[in-house]
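Sharing a chain and its predicted structure for anyone who wants a worked example. Both blocks are below, sequence first, tokens second.
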Amino acid sequence: MNVPLNNLGVVKRNIVRADRAAVEKLARFGAATIHEAMGRVGLFKPYLRPIYPAAQACGTAVTVLLQPGDNWMLHVAAEQIRPGDVVVAAVTAACTDGFFGELLATSFKARGARALVIDGGCRDVKALTAMGFPVWSRAISAKGTVKATLGSVNIPVVCAGALVHPGDAIVADDDGVVCVPRAMAATTLAAAAKREANEGDKRAKLASGVLGLDMYGMRQPLAAAGLRYVD
């Protein structure tokens, strides 16, 4: 990840966050529904996985740019957390060291953070699970980090392939992590609600025994493609 030098050593305060009411309502929908509702964009790469099953989080992004093997800027970021935030941490080069563990989670939780999404490693999984503090990480690693090199807080970052600006909405669950640009929170909410209602109708039909072949009108194009039934 190439970062302009004037973007290193910067902490941006008083960021504009996505509309809180819209973000809270986005939490009703899963990452897959949000991703589809936005036109199949905003998804983080699938190697980011929750550290425990059934983890779910939705909030506004506080972004962090880390240097490999160095978690200094996570401590700096803690001061910028407001209740309802999700910390999104990118690393300037691929690194699976354990940047985050129980002590930082305790600090983040006290500030009101709902989760961490990090394109790096995490440790103290048992303690984090007991705390109920969800983390989506690239790896789990006991290897510790140092505090020596500056990164930045609340600048645009690319985390696991997704561009995230401070204040964007983040939705994360077992299916993955998706970023909703701050300006799109309300429109994405409406699109997600419409999609969910449509899926509800389809679910009811499938539960009644209707086949997807008929519900989606697949039989004619399948025949045109050359599908044959042989008894």
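Comments welcome. The longest strand covers residues 57-66.
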